[in-house]
User: What shape does this take?
Amino acid sequence: MDSICETSDLLVFSHLRWDFVFQRPQHLMSRFAKYRRVYYIEEPLFGKSDFPRLEQKISKDNVNIIIPHLPGDARNEDIEPTLKELVDELLFSEKIDVYSAWYYTPMALPFTRHLQPNAILFDCMDELSLFKNAPQTLLDLEQELLERAHLVFTGGVSLYQAKKHRHHNIHPFPSSIDYNHFATARKGFNDPADQKEIPHPRIGFYGVIDERLDIELLDKMAILKPEWSFVVIGPVVKIDPETLPQRKNIFYLGKKDYEELPRYLSGWDCAMMPFALNESTRFISPTKTPEFLAAGKPVVSTAINDVIHPYEDEGLAAIANGPQEFVALVEKTMKEKENDPTWTSRVDKFLLRNSWDKTFGKIAALERELFSTDKPFENFSNSQSYIVLKEVQ
Assistant: This one.
């Protein structure tokens, strides 16, 4: 802890709400917050305040969560300068002088170009430009961020392969695992009340339910296997909930806290990842893959590249094409796990190669390396201006 990065603050600009789903940003930032001040700045909320202001709260992991509030009638041309003023207000009120800027979204650039951080880091966890309702300006802003950043991470190997030629200091960090948390599911829990009466076998999924989920595939599997129960956990976003298939054997249990997930996983017989194969899933690296395995559940997925490599390659996940093959592989993997005494040890041998602690350690070391060079950083300013639109909500 002897370099400037350990004594500097960390400003994090994210498109994800801290309290939405506990995933990559929460895992990493909660670890950074153990030894430096971390300010996690979300996208603005419109209409919950009559005047621009910052809401600040502290997470249980000591992360400062910053939520900008703007009036509902704010004009597009006023959004960028107003957010800039709010960020400056934060730096002044919190006495933030020495800091690094960490970006999860390029959409924060228009109101942060004037900042002069010691280092600029871009954690490109997804190909946001391919997501539904992505702003038109996102690609231009991402290119600018790549030009400004001193250090870039990607959320998976596929995304790294697609972007490695665009930056001189880019590193892949696929989804990691909080092994001890999810391995508790192997001990067995009493079922939560809303899962208790669901019949076995239970085939489960949790995650954000959006355009990345193949709801037609889910529907067809439920028709093929009316005696199975398909449990789906997670918030519905960007798609109309009315479009979700409604069958007697599909159970939507809604959003659950991170701490609750092992209790639900414990009562499943198999985990499914019925992702759609479209542009929005082209580069995803599902964090849930190692989490399902750590919980002791066999995994069947559609052909997501970062699941094929390494999980199918290692014999730890089955890849299905179409509903008939998917249900056949669910049956097969459940039987194989039951009859294979080496399954658990093979899973653990693989999972214990990595962890969020190890990933964090490698990322923190890469940031420290930035401060071990004599080369001065370029000033983070003087660039063309863009307008932040309400599409960032």
